[in-house]
Design a protein that fits this description.
The protein is mainly alpha-helical. It folds into two domains: 30 residues, no CATH class; 126 residues, no CATH class. The chain is 55% helix and 4% strand. The chain has eight helices and two strands, in the order H-H-H-E-H-H-H-H-H-E. A two-stranded antiparallel sheet has the order 1-2. Helix 1 crosses helix 2, helix 4 packs across helix 7 and helix 7 crosses helix 8. The chain is globular and about 40 Å long.
């Protein structure tokens, strides 16, 4: 890391108040090589998407309501079925719960929490990974698909 980058990080920490900036820095928010940073810099994401870890209550409510975010839930179901393993860290939600992501099914609060918590944990694990455009980026595309949702309009929060 360059001396300028370290100085900028230190200044940002002083201005923002140590805790939040330090956590964001450690999570890769300011590292231009991480999945999280690259996804946030994507022009289609900048003003339209937000990280699921920042909106736990809203995302869990969407998972329960079978009329909301159908595309996201369909994509999440597909990704959970085909991968997204946290091998040895945590068990994936049951197939029965994953299948309830399809309309017209409805998840109970406990089921939505289980799916959200697993997905968030997967996203937290992946967001600090190094992005390499030369390699196969299926994993990065999965990250963008399941770790970001449409921004919630202020009136509906």
């Amino acid at each position: 890391m360059s001396t300028q980058a370290i100085g900028a990080a230190a200044a940002g920490t002083a201005i923002l108040g140590g805790g939040g900036a330090t956590i964001a820095y450690a999570a890769g928010a300011f590292d231009p090589t991480t999945y999280f940073y690259k996804a946030n810099e994507d022009s289609e994401f900048k003003n339209t998407k937000e990280y699921i870890g920042d909106k736990p209550d809203q995302v869990k409510a969407w998972l329960i309501d079978n009329t909301k975010e159908k595309t996201y839930k369909g994509n999440l179901k597909t990704k959970l079925e085909s991968g997204m393993d946290l091998r040895g860290i945590r068990d994936k939600p049951s197939t029965e719960r994953i299948n309830k992501l399809s309309t017209p099914n409805t998840l109970a609060q406990e089921e939505a929490k289980d799916i959200y918590d697993y997905t968030k944990e997967w996203c937290e694990f992946k967001k600090g990974l190094a992005y390499d455009k030369e390699k196969n980026n299926d994993d990065f595309e999965n990250f963008k698909t399941v770790c970001f949702v449409n921004k919630i309009p202020k009136a509906t929060q």
